[in-house]
């Protein structure tokens, strides 16, 4: 501020030569301020202190060589966070347990960003149509595939109150898939947990590991399809609880099926499942009834460092990640869907993300979330 104030005073009283010098000083000052905004002019010890606190918070240890590498990555992430948060954005970024990973490492860890073919195949899936109610028209939908739905329909996505199944008690604690590409199983159990709670007034955590190891219609840590999983659960006669069949694939390994060692929960067998029509109105109507399995494209760095608020802006529709829609509402004037992720509770807003509802992305939904929505019927 002192440089700007003195410059204006000198311009008022000086001649041409003085003015040229002042303009040069002003240009240099602006350049320095721009550089300061980009890097925040933070000294190395600032990053080291912040990184040390982060390591303590997340119980991380590194040898000397890796420490320097991870410190640099963390420092870059800190700059990215501060630059984004300095903008007038509807959402904020922040540090989490993934701040020491490059974007490429994070993508590989979570199995996102895989190239997609233009249209789906059914991967040999055989569907008994008498057991399946299809609202939107397409066949069972796969995370890592897309279906072009031009069914249209009236849409009213603005306002309309709010629904939150977390507050209603129908959603279990946030879980963590680890380095296994099992997002589809967490989306599946989340939808089943919600449906079971609504039908029985009891919140039961179902087993993702049972799906990862035993579901022959899907591919364990290498990906899967929520509708495939609903079909397998139906044929299997239900799922065991997470307590009886705990998750052990966080490191990416899969053992043989051990379903014989647990007992499926009575009443956990879907009688059918519904593919939600591709519109905000249909999604809101479905969420009025229960939590809904959805697929999104999570292939952008904003997802890695997302912290709070409603994610808006350009977002792709190459679906690569299964999550759970648990409600909708309005935050600071922006309509949203509340979505439960499976990257642990340190990520995002306590493990959740808010995606824009309506707006410029109304046809496909933010990050394609309207393109592959479904839920089980008990």
Provide structural commentary.
It is a single chain. This protein is an alpha+beta fold and 378 residues long. The protein has three domains: 1-39; 43-80; 110-377, Cysteine proteinases (Cathepsin B, Chain A, Alpha-Beta Complex). The chain contains ten helices and ten strands. It has helices spanning 2-13, 16-39, 44-57, 64-85, 103-110, 183-200, 208-214, 226-236, 280-289, 301-305, and strands spanning 91-93, 133-134, 163-164, 272-275, 292-296, 306-311, 321-331, 334-340, 352-356, 374-377. Strands 1, 3, 5, 6, 7, 8 and 9 form a seven-stranded mixed beta sheet that branches. Mean pLDDT is 82; it is low at 1-41 and 115-155.
Give the termini distance in whole angstroms. 65 Å
- How many DSSP E strands? 10
CATH superfamily heading of the largest domain: Cysteine proteinases
Mean pLDDT: 82
Number of domains: 3
**pLDDT < 50 stretches:** 1-41, 115-155
Number of helices: 10
- Helix content, binned percent: 25-40%
How much beta, percentage-wise? 5-15%
So what's the CATH class of the largest domain?
Alpha Beta
| CATH third-tier fold name of the largest domain | Cathepsin B, Chain A
Described by strand count, sense and barrel closure, the largest sheet is:
7 strands, mixed
Shape: globular
Computed structural class = alpha+beta
Give the topology string: H per helix, E per strand.
Answer: HHHHEHEEHHHEHEHEEEEE
Named CATH architecture of the largest domain: Alpha-Beta Complex
Which radius of gyration do the C-alpha atoms yield?
Answer: 25 Å
């Amino acid at each position: 501020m002192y440089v700007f104030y003195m410059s204006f005073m000198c311009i008022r009283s000086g001649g041409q030569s003085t003015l040229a010098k002042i303009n040069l000083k002003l240009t240099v000052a602006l350049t320095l301020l721009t550089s300061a905004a980009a890097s925040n002019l933070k000294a190395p010890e600032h990053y080291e202190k912040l990184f040390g606190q982060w390591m303590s918070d997340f119980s991380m240890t590194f040898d000397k060589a890796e420490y320097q590498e991870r410190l640099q990555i963390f420092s870059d992430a800190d700059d990215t966070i501060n630059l984004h948060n300095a903008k007038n954005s509807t959402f904020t970024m922040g540090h989490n347990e993934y701040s020491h990973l490059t974007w490429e490492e994070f993508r590989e860890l979570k199995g996102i960003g895989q190239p997609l073919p233009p249209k789906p195949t059914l991967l040999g899936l055989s569907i008994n149509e008498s057991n399946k109610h299809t609202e939107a028209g397409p066949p069972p939908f796969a995370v890592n595939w897309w279906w072009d739905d031009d069914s249209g329909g009236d849409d009213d996505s603005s306002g309309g109150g709010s629904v939150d199944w977390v507050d209603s008690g129908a959603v279990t604690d946030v879980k963590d898939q680890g380095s296994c590409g099992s997002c589809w199983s967490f989306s599946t159990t989340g939808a089943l947990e919600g449906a079971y709670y609504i039908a029985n007034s009891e919140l039961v955590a179902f087993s993702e590991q049972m799906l990862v190891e035993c579901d022959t219609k899907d591919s364990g840590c290498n990906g899967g399809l929520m509708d495939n999983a609903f079909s397998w659960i139906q044929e299997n006669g239900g799922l065991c609880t997470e307590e009886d069949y705990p998750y052990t694939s966080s490191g990416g390994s899969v053992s043989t099926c051990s379903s014989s060692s647990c007992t499926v929960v009575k009443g956990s067998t879907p009688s059918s499942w519904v593919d939600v029509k591709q519109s905000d109105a249909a999604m809101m109507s479905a969420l009025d009834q229960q939590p809904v399995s959805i697929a999104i494209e999570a292939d952008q760095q904003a997802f890695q460092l997302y912290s709070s608020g409603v994610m808006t802006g350009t977002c792709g529709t190459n679906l690569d990640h299964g999550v759970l829609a648990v409600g909708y509402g309005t935050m600071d004037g922006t309509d949203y869907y509340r979505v439960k992720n499976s990257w642990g509770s340190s990520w995002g807003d306590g493990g959740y993300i808010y995606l824009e509802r309506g707006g410029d992305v109304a046809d496909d939904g933010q990050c394609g979330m309207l393109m592959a929505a479904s839920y089980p019927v008990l």
